[in-house]
Amino acid sequence: MLRFEDVSVKFGSCTVLSDVSFTLSTGKLTALVGKNGSGKSTLAACLRGQIAFSGDILVEGVSFKEIPARQRAKQLACLPQILPFGALSVRQLVQLGRNPYLGLTQRFGPADHMAVEQALTDTDMYGFAERDIRTLSGGERQRAFLAMMLAQDTPLLILDEPTAYMDIQAEARFLELLRTLTRRGKTVLAILHNLEAAMRFGDDIVVLDQGRVMFAGSKEACRKQGKIEEVFGVQRLHIQDKDFFFAQR
Amino acid sequence: MVLLLALVCAAGCAFGSKSFSLQQLWDGLTGKEETATVILYHLRIPRVLAALLAGMGLSVAGLLLQSVTANEMASPNIIGVNSGAGFCCMLLLNFFPLAAQWLPLAAFLGAFAATLLITGLSVGMGASKNTVILAGIACTSVLNAGISLLSLLDTDILAVYNAFSVGSLSGVRISQLLIPFVIIMAGMLTALLFARRIQLLTLGDDIAYGLGANVLWLRILCLLCASACAAAVVSFAGLLGFVGLVVPHMARKLGGNMMRGQLVVSAILGGALVVSADLLGRILLAPTEIPVGIVMALIGAPFFVWLLLRRRGRYAEV
If residue B2 lies in a helix (H) or strand (E), which one and from where to where? Predict the structure, then answer.
């Protein structure tokens, strides 16, 4: 469905991504992990069409560069790391998710309204629909923006550190929600800092280090190969089917 | 709000150094009273229309600029409208002193050329919201230095330039407004047509890209619409400050969260504000007139500070 083929990004003489290649499995949650500066957010920016890259990203076998921006937004929805504080109600924000489907003079139709209502329901944000997004907590705001992505009605969801400002409960709820979405056929790529959450909620794991893919595959294979321990310099404890990581001295 | 605008326009026609009652106003409009008819059709109505147009053009330009730069302090000044117009006027006055009647055209061309230069530079630098402001600051500094230099060459033209730079609607004729009217309407209608897309820019580039917006193209479109509107106003009203800065703040408060509503409210409020300011300027020290630019600065600046104080601490991060 979504395949990276030798994707490289250079900023001046600095190589940020180097020959990144991996495939996202359909209907699965792939957790992308890596140390600070490993190129995770740059990869997300490539998917938004925000920066130039060499190599290719194939969406359903079609080169990313050949798909017009609005068409692309019907295939993959991207949530950036830093969310804005616009003066909008949750419903107005979610309605903006329908932008790829609306022409300049086209009015909001029944299908658009239905997509918005469904997105609000799926993210449990129906009760917040008329609230100003500036008054929401960090977790609620992430869900509001996730609802906007869902209104985009794309098979692919890309989220850049969506749980960065959440407490442990809100993080678990949010990632569980992403897993629910994968069961409904969505393919999710979530960039995560929390290694334990990545191993708990991710179906597949991609490990980036210094712009290179060090591992891409199932989390079981990741455990076996010990790639996370190697790249992050941490130790892993596996207790009651859960992974715990702690830094080595 | 439309009613408020209509009332303000009626007041703008009725009051001045010579005031009219409602009956006199009607008689003047229908041609029954010759003096009133002459004053209304040759002085008051062109002036009210000019104020209306100036307010609409500058407010919409300000709102567009604040949206594309995601900076609530942005106004037409930052894209070089004032400095471009001023520089071109100084060039004309220095090198073609007998062609002062072409001052409005020079102002328009200068303002538009400066904004095109700044747009071009910011596009060259990636057209991010910050590069627009940075390119604006750089170009404005150079143009202001040029104005100062030209004023040293011939100090006599400073008086003419100062009168222009204050911003005034005195003696404006209907014929002067036709081309600016077309330009401002075209700019406003284009902005309304693209309002939904422009709204995406207010959420930042990352979100806008994700929603399939062509961010670079949209930003250029907004800059062109804003610069055309502001430059058109400069051509007949001189350098009017504060309208493009203050009115968008009021429009965001009264026009709802969506860009389309804000654009409409911005145009109405801007028109009403400049017509009111011009009216105040005519009656406060009558028969002496205070230029509308000075009235705008006198009421605009304190009002703006009041707005900011009222908003302080309302949201954690805005």
Answer: helix B2-14
User: Which residue type, as a one-letter code, is found at position B204?
Assistant: G
Beta bridge partners of A4: A22, A57
CB contact under 8 A, B209 and A49: yes
Pairing state between β A204-209 and A29-34:
parallel
Give the integer Cα–Cα distance in Å for B291 and B167: 6
Tell me the C-alpha distance between A145 and A157, whole Å: 12
- Contact criterion met (CB below 8 Å) for B63 and B262: yes
Nearest Cα to B297, choosing from B283, B281, B314? B281
- The CA–CA distances, whole Å, from A100 to A33, A88, A219, B212, B269 equal 30, 19, 34, 6, 32
What is the C-alpha to C-alpha distance for residues B249 and A100, in angstroms, rounded to an integer? 29
pLDDT per position as a tens digit, A113-169: 999 999 999 888 899 999 999 899 888 888 899 999 999 999 999 999 888 878 888
How many Cβ atoms from other residues are within 10 Å of residue B35's Cβ?
A: 12
Q: Please check whether residue B170 is in contact with residue B93, taking contact to mean a CB–CB distance below 8 angstroms.
A: no
> Residue B195 has which token pair?
């309002």
Residue B189 contacts A, CB cutoff 8 Å: no
A154's enclosing H/E stretch is none
Residue of A nearest to B215 (CA): A50
Laid out side by side, the sheet with A29-34 consists of: A76-79, A156-160, A187-191, A29-34, A204-209, A212-218
Inter-chain contact B315–A85, Cβ cutoff 8 Å? yes
Give me the sheet containing A2-11, strands edge to edge.
Answer: A14-24, A2-11, A54-59, A62-63
Alpha-carbon Rg for chain B in angstroms:
20
ipTM tops the 0.90 cut = no
Q: Is B193 on the interface with A (CB under 8 A)?
A: yes
Six-digit token pair at B38? 């002459």
B103-124 and B129-153 helices cross at what angle (nearest 10)?
140
Please tell me if residue B202 touches chain A, with a CB cutoff of 8 Å.
yes
Q: Do A102 and B315 touch (CB under 8 A)?
A: no
Residue B140 CA to residue B276 CA, distance in Å, equals 30
Select from B196, B258, B316 the Cβ nearest to the Cβ of A99. B196
CA distance B135 to chain A (A): 21
The CATH number of the domain covering residues in B2-311: 1.10.3470.10
Contacts of A69 in chain B (CB under 8 A): 209, 212-214
Q: Exposed (0-12), middle (13-18) or buried (19+): which is B255, by Cβ within 10 Å?
A: buried
Helix residue spans in B194-242 (DSSP H): 195-201, 205-210, 215-237
Q: Which residue has the tokens 């008819």?
A: B37
pLDDT, one tens digit per residue, over A28-64 is: 999 999 998 899 999 999 988 888 899 999 988 899 8
> Which range in B48-57, B98-107, B124-133, B154-163 is most confidently predicted, on average pLDDT?
B48-57
Closest CA to B184 of B227, B220, B241, B223: B227
Q: Tell me if residue A62 falls in helix, strand or coil.
A: strand
